[in-house]
Design a protein that fits this description.
Strands 6-5-3-8 form a four-stranded mixed beta sheet. The protein is rod-shaped and about 170 Å long. It contains 32 helices and ten strands. Helix 1 (16-44) runs parallel beside helix 13 and helix 22 (534-554) packs across helix 27. Helices cover 61% and strands 5% of the residues. Mean pLDDT is 77; it is low at 1-12, 47-54 and 750-793. With 793 residues, it is mostly helical.
């Protein structure tokens, strides 16, 4: 009987109870998704006062830890103190003005020519000539230097040489004290002016000068004159060269001077630009940049930004929007998976586990982000790489399987990246690390398998961290980043191992670790079964091998099938002698019982099994899988015996000879039903050849299918083909041919055959005779039509 995605059968209308349960499950799932969305929205939503929460009075005067932006358009009315601070800030932002007088060199050359003209050819005494020369030059000159120049007769060559020295000196930008420029780190405004210019000569040309290397101090310029004279006039007598340098130096004056009047005028104009009216901020405008000092007015600006709505209302609106958005994303993913992924169903308890792990993962990332910001660290760099985010997908894989893991890894990667600072490259890192860790525990055979999966996740995460460092061109941090990423995988494995028992207890899930513990053959139920019913014990072991191989072949949980098979007949220990595999020689207890009584004993072993498994606290999934292996199958042997022995007109109801259990509800339970039937039927073969085994396997599968026993376990025709091939592979290993030992000669065979026939006559065993085998083959051939339709041919 096929079932819909809601678990309701297609071939009959649902009952009111089924409808109520379905809608109740849907309502519970919807509420869980909305609750998870709300919690996640609370963790990742950017609050309206998020920036201001980190800016308290204690932060005033300290660098801001992040950019603070306006969340909406608003106006902020300034207080008198704020206006004063803003005006002073505008004034301080004005660069000081310096004037570069470019005509000082021309003026100095003119005085030099006048001085030479005043003394050349004049019939005056030496003191009078010196006085006239100094007066025309506009600077004092020592007598010895004037005497050196006089010996050369104030020639035109000497005048040209002095003009070269003076002109070259004024080609530089010369300031009185170069040290005063050090106070102007933001630069100066350098205006090109003419010293004797009038008021109507136009606006001076100016430049923004931040590099002061082209400006030299007055002392440095005078030393440059000495070096220039030595280079150009090194052949002249020393006294004459010294006199030339002295005359040039007394003419040298600073041509760059601070214009304090113009600077103050400009600063006054800048102050007037700050009016006593509200400042308008627009949404997204940066108010405080990361690294800037927090000022006292910022809390008041925050209050103005909150406005009439208030920060609480704005934050709740943001949380509601983000929560609904996250809930829609989660609901969309789950709905698509349920509709498109085969065998994907989630109970409310499963959704609760997913939501709890998702909230825990995102909450851990959010906490790491807050701590990192408190210590002035970037949460999107090294801090993020060290987080053990792969633990979440690994736990989901252990508890809920691969399909739920993929959805969880996608959602967790995106939301964790948002919680850490909205860097989507981290989403790729988290996704790769989580998927790698979950892939590493596809088959868990010990707790060390989880640690190995953590190592695999760490290795892949290290490679991903290398890629992220290369993308950001941060080569220096590659070793640290890779080491932390590898460590995160190891910690993820340890966390998974530690939290797995707690998660199992909270979710009621049964993981592979629990199943492995149940596989221990020293379990009290199995030890008791091996003593009371050794034949049943051996039968269970073989069925476990068949079921595990078949489940592995179709992608089902082979470990669950093996454990369920191991425990599926423990109830037979209560009446072990009534089951064929435990018959004592020449003793068939059913010979003295009515068929209905025998059938009751046989089918009661399912109830006894349930009671024993529940008493020993075996997980429910194992109990359900183990006790559905008969479904509602007909106990044919005793039903046939009852019909044969019934008198004329005596009614024989088929329902009295059917098992009262539930049909298999999972692929593992369906495989276990088939494995149980195949193992029992294969024992009846005298010579278990490959052909005869194939006939038995196909007949059992066809019979269970046509009887409707597999309608509710989601096994497809392709699965049945794969199951048949797996059964034959295992049976071929069990019933393979062996060479005869030397003592097994032809002389002893007739005697042994006679003893075997005598035993069969005294105690019929469930072994097929040639005639019965022919009937079996005939029935199988009869069902070839069914087999062809099933694809089992």
């Amino acid at each position: 009987m096929a079932a819909s995605s809601d678990g309701l059968p297609y071939d009959r209308p649902p009952s009111r109870g089924e409808i109520a349960r379905t809608w109740g499950r849907r309502a519970a799932n919807t509420l869980l998704v909305l609750a998870a969305g709300g919690l996640l929205g609370l963790l990742i939503a950017p609050g309206g006062d998020e920036g201001w929460a980190a800016l308290s009075d204690a932060d005033v005067g300290k660098p801001a830890r992040r950019d603070v932006k306006a969340t909406r358009d608003f106006e902020h009315a300034l207080s008198p103190a704020e206006i004063g601070r803003l005006r002073q800030a505008r004034a301080d932002a004005v660069q000081p003005v310096y004037d570069h007088a470019i005509d000082l060199g021309t003026e100095a050359l003119g005085k030099l020519h006048a001085a030479f003209a005043a003394v050349r050819g004049a019939e005056l005494s030496a003191p009078e000539r010196l006085e006239r020369f100094a007066e025309a030059l506009g600077a004092p000159v020592e007598a010895r230097h004037f005497e050196a120049l006089s010996r050369e007769g104030f020639s035109d060559q000497l005048r040209a040489a002095l003009a070269f020295l003076v002109g070259s000196a004024f080609e530089d930008r010369v300031i009185e004290q170069r040290a005063e420029l050090a106070a102007h780190g933001s630069g100066i405004r350098l205006r090109v002016v003419v010293a004797d210019a009038g008021e109507g000569d136009g606006q001076p040309r100016e430049e923004d000068l931040r590099d002061f290397h082209a400006i030299v101090g007055l002392a440095e310029a005078r030393q440059a004159l000495v070096r220039r004279a030595e280079v150009n006039y090194g052949r002249l007598p020393g006294e004459l060269r010294e006199a030339m340098v002295a005359v040039a130096q007394v003419q040298l004056r600073p041509n760059v001077r601070s214009n304090r009047a113009e600077t103050e005028a400009r600063r006054a104009r800048a102050r007037r630009t700050v009016a006593a009216r509200p400042i308008v901020y627009v949404r997204g405008q940066v108010i405080v940049r990361e690294g800037d000092l927090v000022r006292a007015e910022h809390p008041r600006i925050a209050a103005a930004m909150r406005g009439r709505m208030g920060v609480g209302a704005e934050r709740w609106l943001r949380l509601a929007g983000m929560g609904l958005l996250v809930a829609l994303v989660l609901g969309g993913l789950l709905g698509y998976a349920a509709d498109q992924m085969r065998r994907f169903t989630l109970r409310p308890r499963d959704l609760l586990v997913l939501g709890a792990l998702l909230v825990a993962s995102v909450g851990a990332c959010r906490a790491a982000s807050i701590v990192a910001l408190r210590f002035d660290l970037d949460p999107t760099s090294i801090v993020a790489l060290a987080l053990p985010v792969a633990a979440g997908p690994m736990l989901v894989k252990m508890v809920l399987g691969a399909r739920a893991t993929l959805l969880f890894a996608l959602g967790a990667a995106l939301l964790c990246a948002l919680a850490l600072g909205r860097d989507l490259t981290l989403a790729a890192y988290f996704l790769v690390a989580g998927v790698a860790g979950a892939s590493g525990i596809s088959r868990v055979r010990s707790r060390y398998s989880i640690l190995r999966a953590g190592l695999l996740s760490g290795g892949v995460a290290a490679l991903c961290a290398l890629c992220l460092r290369l993308i950001s061109a941060d080569l220096a941090s590659i070793p640290v980043a890779m080491a932390l990423a590898a460590l995160s995988g190891v910690v993820s494995g340890l966390l998974t191992t530690t939290l797995l028992p707690l998660l199992e207890a909270l979710s009621g899930a049964t993981t592979d670790i629990t199943l492995l513990e149940l596989c221990n053959l020293s379990h009290p139920l199995l030890r008791d079964l091996s003593l009371r019913a050794p034949g049943t014990y051996h039968h269970s072991m073989v069925v476990g091998n068949l079921a595990e191989a078949a489940c592995d072949a179709i992608g089902a949980n082979g470990l669950l099938a093996r454990v369920a098979a191991t425990f599926h007949d423990v109830g037979k220990g209560k009446n072990a002698s009534y089951f064929a595999e435990n018959f004592a020689p020449r003793d068939n207890p059913h010979g003295a019982l009515e068929p209905s009584r025998s059938a009751l004993i046989i089918r009661n072993h399912v109830k006894d099994t349930i009671d024993l498994l529940e008493a020993h606290r075996v997980p429910r999934v194992v109990i359900d899988t183990a006790t559905q292996h008969h479904g509602t199958t007909l106990i044919e042997y005793f039903h046939h015996k009852a019909k044969t022995g019934a008198g004329a007109g005596e009614p024989i109801r088929e329902e009295d000879f059917r098992y009262l259990g539930r049909r298999p509800q999972s692929p593992e339970a369906g495989v276990l039903m088939l494995a149980d039937g195949v193992e029992a039927a294969s024992r009846s073969l005298g010579e278990a050849t490959e052909e005869r085994l194939a006939v038995v396997v196909h007949r059992i599968i066809s019979k269970k299918f046509t009887d409707g026993q597999l309608d509710e376990c989601n096994l497809t025709l392709r699965d049945l083909n794969a199951i048949a091939r797996a059964f034959l592979r295992v049976l071929g290993g069990i019933y393979h041919g062996r060479p005869a030992y030397p003592w097994q000669t032809s002389q002893t065979q007739p005697e042994e055959k006679g003893r075997e026939n005598a035993a069969d006559a005294a105690h019929p065993r469930p072994r097929a005779t040639p005639a019965e085998l022919d009937v079996t083959v005939e029935h199988a051939a009869e069902g070839r039509g069914h087999l062809g339709r099933l694809g089992l041919d």
